[in-house]
Amino acid sequence: MNQRTWLAILTLPFVTAFTYPMVFQQAQPIVKIETPKNPQDPLSGLSDIQDVLSNVRDYYVDTPDMEKVIAGGIQAALERAHPMNAYLTPEELRLPDPGPAQAGLMVLKKSIWAQVIAVTPGSPAAKAGMQVGDVIRKIDGDSVSTMSAWTIERRLKGTVGSELNLVKYDSANGQIKQVTLKREVILRPAISARKDPKATVIELPDLSTGRAMELKAMLGTLDRKLPLVLDLRECAGGDLTEAAMVAGLFAGDGTLVSVQEAGKPDRSVMAVSAGLQPFPEFAVLQGYGTVGASEGLVSFLKKQALLTIGEKTAGLGVERNRFPLKQGGAVELVNRRWLGAGGEKLDRQGVEPVEVLKGLQPNEDPLPKVLEIMATKLKKAA
Questions:
Q1: What is the DSSP letter of 116?
Q2: Can you give the pTM of this predicted structure?
């Protein structure tokens, strides 16, 4: 497709915003006044972009594929706005479904690499020892630098038993490793409860439909005299409605998050107390693998003066939707973001814990350090 057509599509929002005043002014007597170029004018660099494309086409040592050049430029512009944005060509939209099997990884594209932000318990990735924080550089021999978020997500899927080859930097020791995983149809992981003589630790893997009811039933079997630790360090996926119901199991009524969308009033997602007897000692364990709806949950519990321990969350409290383009392609855009109960912009900012806990080693039991922090807080409160 001609590069001028691509350029017109990419700049359509800016052109629309300026169309009416330009037409209106042309209907009036024209008085030519020389004014300096406004450096903030978003259209001021379009002539430079056209010149760059023309020079690439005319003077590059090899004949370039201008469609790929322009598509790469569009993708780069989208990623500058948000790393989850993606441009899909008409050919990509016609690709068949890759298959139902997965590796159990959620990753976030960051420039020339992708960082692991969640590992599904019991998945092929978990069995291979992959952890939150690992950096992926290649997928099946191809660099992730040229892949969009949509492409990476698709490449991680496949048919049952198919192999996925990754080149990654290990977050634990910084070594480069090649990992081969066999994709599986991953069953929904169960909520786990570990009853220690000193406390109970509940690990919540996601906020998919039904988790609040499961958790409520589990809470009814626990000794409320013991401290309770809700581990959300690998809680990724799910929705705000479920997060609001889980919040109601531990705290009072209030706004869980405010959903913000350009040109529309904010929409509040409310948490309603379930009226359960509270745990006298309660803490939430959070981390970089606390992703999406669970970030709204953490923000709300922190706002309710409950103790949150760990590291800052991922900052991915967003919603992404697909918008078709006239030439047959599409863009996937982050078009809504969530504002946490504490005022956090959950699309990038994330949620800071009340008490920072870093340096936990892989497979280290966090409970002793968490109980130490809880005891210190109780002494200060007393």
A1: E
A2: 0.80
